[in-house]
Amino acid sequence: MSNAISLNGRLAARWARRAVDRLRKERTEIDELNVFPVPDGDTGTNMYHTLRAAYLAVEELTGPVTLPHVIAALAAGAGRGARGNSGLILAVALQGVADALAGVTVATADAMATALETASDRARAAVARPVDGTMLTVLDAMATEARERADDGADLLEVIAAVRERSRSALRETTGQLTVLREAEVVDAGSTGIVELFDLLYATVTGRTPQDSMLAEVARAPKIIHEATADELEIVAVLATEPTDSLGDELDRLGGTSIVINAAKVHVHVADEATAATVIDRLGEFGIARLDMEDLRMHEEEGETKLIALVKGTGLLMHTALNGATALTPVVGDLFETMSELIAAEDRAVIVIPSSTSALKSLTGLGAYVVRSRNVATLLSALAVYDPFAPAGEIFADMTEAAAGTRVGTIYSADQLASDPPTGMLPVVHEDGEVRAAAGAGFGQGTGSGLVTAVAAHPAQFYRVFIEGRAKTQSTELRTLVEKLADRLLGAGGELLTVVHGPDCAPEVLDHLRDWIQKSHGTVHFQDIDARDPGVLVIMGVE
Fold it and tell me: What is the DSSP letter of 391?
């Protein structure tokens, strides 16, 4: 076979573009094959979105590009945009190829074999419990074939042609390698995507028109579908720092399944929300930059809009992600740049809900619908009315109205006031019993301020209430303050009281408030959310 046509940066970019187009057309058929690890019917869709994110990174390249440039951009884009189990494994494999081809301007047979070996090894290492009959098995078979052919003296095109044929036979073999596939009489969905992508590589390098798609042979409805367990949830997290090598084993012990870890990106399935909370808290020890979650029982199609929520604390990250948002921690990295990348990767309208005035201001000029949400309580109100299938303009207006109509109160502890004081000021009771205004226009201005004296007077039990950013009252009794704050917020009416609390708000305080609401405001619905954020004591919202 002639080696006149080879693989370079230009051809790699062409392959990526064609691959995105093919997966866009074939994703539904690949989705229908999906019965493992859970039959959530999204393998083709996840691989499509992952590869689309990869190609968007290639489009950003300027000037003459080499093969390493293109492959590195593909890997980086896939890593950022990977979706689901199959998407993350694909991203890991692409990163392996990129690392193997670094410095290789024009690929050779040996370089191709090394790239496939690295991709296979990395993908298998990323999965906590590798299983035969999956993408890992097909990648292994492809790598083995490539190495054998390259060592026998085959040229690049001969290696690619042989690997293409071996990938197809390996795909057929998956049916007999995994019980769930054998019972359903289908091949593995993720492996089908891999085979289709390599088929396109063969067509691109040889200059031939793509034909003989494996889908024509393998596409069929599964005869038996093993439903997802009662409350199976998918978690995909991007961590602020790369985790330790033991994280996969730790997540397995915590009850996680389908665990895939690629650098700072983690994919795991859990049985229920309680397990999800435990897993997310563990991930939170590395910092969570982004969190996506999906209920695998629901099989919902994509809506007309994409929702992004900016929150802190593993509890709020989990709550917003479970309610359909991509949850971001606003303090991690360059927020505007991160948001811009997420928006560019979407082919639908994006709605953003911030949870602070500072985050809201930082999003000025962002190419998305930004709800004017000033704190956590207004964010939760907007989130509660979100409908992904409603027209973007209509649901944005509804969310904005919900946020604007929420009355908000916050209780701060002495430590919070000293470390991160809000604006506003109240007279402070000093140790000698005299009431004096603190120095300066705000808290903490100088060591002689009234705040510092108040903190010294009540080092562990000093609290202050703010309503809509204005200081209102203070006390050493948190139980008394939560009652007074709720009563004041409900004074103008309201049907729902939402209480967001952190780890320093004792359970008995919440129990007291709940009992008091039932007695004093019997028609008001009470909702409490554990932010699992040490920066939060108590935040209330009434709508």
Answer: -
pLDDT at residue 221 above 60? no
Under 8 Å between Cβ of 100 and 122: no
CA angle 115, 243, 281 (to 5 degrees): 135
Angle, helices 43-59/189-206, rounded to nearest 10 degrees: 40
Q: Is the pLDDT of residue 25 over 90?
A: no
Task: Tell me the CA distances in angstroms from 436 to 62, 248, 431, 470, one per residue in order.
Answer: 64, 57, 11, 18
Structure tokens at 256: 């996680």
What CA–CA distance (Å, rounded) separates 105 from 108?
Answer: 10
User: Pick from 360, 366, 372: which is nearest to 339 by CA?
Assistant: 366
For 219-248, what is the mean pLDDT? 72
Secondary structure class of 405 (helix, strand, coil): coil
**CB contact at 8 A, 13 and 58:** yes
Sequence-distant (≥ 6) Cβ neighbours of residue 269 within 8 angstroms? 37, 38, 85, 232, 233, 234, 235, 256, 257, 258, 296
Question: SS3 of 310, please?
Answer: strand
CA-angle at 316, arms to 371 and 475, nearest 5°: 95
Q: Quote the pLDDT of residue 427.
A: 41
Tokens linked to 81: 């945009």
Report the candidate in 422, 462, 429, 468 with the shortest Cα–Cα distance to residue 443: 422
- Which of 35-49, 82-96, 194-208 has the lowest average pLDDT? 35-49
CA dist., res. 185 & res. 10, Å (int): 40
Identify the bridge partners of residue 528 per DSSP, sorted by sequence position: 499
Helices (H) and strands (E) in the chain, counts: 21, 16
Nearest to 359 by CA among 336, 383, 384: 336
Question: How high does pLDDT run on average in the chain?
Answer: 84
Rounded distance between C-alpha atoms, residue 454 and residue 461, angstroms: 10
Residue 108 vs residue 64, higher pLDDT: 108
First to last CA, the chain: 72
CB 312 within 8 A of CB 535: yes
Dihedral angle, C-alpha 478, 483, 485, 491, nearest 10 ° = -170
3-state secondary structure 102-163: CCCCCCCHHHHHHHHHHHHHHHHHHECCCCCCCHHHHHHHHHHHHHHHHHCCCCHHHHHHHH
The Cα–Cα gap between 109 and 514 comes to 70
Please state, in angstroms and rounded to a whole number, the distance separating the CA atoms of residues 414 and 290: 31
- As a whole number, mean pLDDT of residues 58-67 equals 84
Q: What ranges in 263-302 are assigned the alpha helix state H?
A: 273-284
- Calpha distance 180→491 (Å, rounded): 58
pLDDT at 220: 56
Per-residue pLDDT for 1 more than 50? no
Question: Which residues have C-beta within 8 Å of that of residue 254, sequence separation ≥ 6?
Answer: 275, 278, 279, 282
Distance of CA 406 to the CA centre of its chain: 27
Radius of gyration of the chain (CA): 27
Q: How would you classify the pairing of strands 305-310 and 325-328?
A: parallel
- Residue 175, pLDDT > 90, answer no
